[in-house]
């Protein structure tokens, strides 16, 4: 059951999401960045000198931090998932590019978000919907 402290934290997370730099970074990843190959993804995700690398790092770290708050008991999961599924959308959009990397490194892409999806049925349901919209298209 959500508490007043949970409500305050959700509002703080929303306030941070409205910050101009993060807003632009989120917009880029959700709407403008649509890589077709892992190489196109890595130009943004791995090259720290790339124009949009900071957008990648800032957005993913924000959603990983938020997911961690839920997983560690700092924020009510139901309250969070009512209004904050963008991290799950990004996981669905980009995870398929990281399957080989995960096998090689043993580290999960967006590990906190992945754990959120594994643990909460609402997160899993959102992931399934996003996956249908963002999975690679077969020719």
Helical residues, percent: over 70%
What is the beta-strand fraction?
under 5%
For this entry, what is the oligomeric state of its chains?
Answer: single chain
Number of domains: 1
Task: Provide the succession of SSEs.
Answer: HHHHHHHHH
Strand pairing plus helix content: what structural class? mainly alpha
Shape: globular
What is the rounded distance between the termini?
A: 46 Å
Task: Show the helix and strand layout.
Layout: H1 4-17, H2 20-32, H3 38-45, H4 53-71, H5 77-83, H6 86-94, H7 99-105, H8 111-119, H9 121-134
Question: Can you describe what's shown?
Answer:
With 139 residues, this protein is an all-alpha fold. It has one domain. Helix content is 72%, strand content 0%. Helix 4 crosses helix 6, helix 4 packs parallel to helix 8 and helix 8 packs across helix 9.
How would you briefly describe this protein structure?
This protein has 139 residues and is an all-alpha fold.
Q: Main attributes?
A:
single chain; 139 residues; mainly alpha; 9 helices; 72% helix; 0% strand; globular
């Amino acid at each position: 059951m959500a508490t007043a402290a949970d409500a305050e934290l959700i509002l703080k997370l929303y306030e941070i999401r409205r910050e101009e730099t993060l807003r632009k970074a989120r917009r880029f990843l959700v709407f403008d960045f649509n890589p077709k190959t892992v190489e196109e993804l890595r130009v943004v995700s791995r090259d720290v000198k790339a124009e949009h690398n900071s957008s990648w790092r800032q957005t993913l770290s924000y959603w990983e931090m938020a997911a961690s708050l839920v997983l560690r008991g700092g924020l009510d999961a139901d309250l969070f998932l009512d209004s904050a599924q963008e991290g799950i959308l990004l996981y669905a959009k980009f995870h398929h590019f990281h399957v080989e990397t995960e096998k090689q490194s043993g580290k999960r892409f967006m590990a906190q978000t992945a754990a959120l999806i594994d643990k909460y049925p609402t997160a899993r349901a959102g992931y399934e919907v996003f996956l249908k919209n963002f999975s690679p298209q077969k020719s």
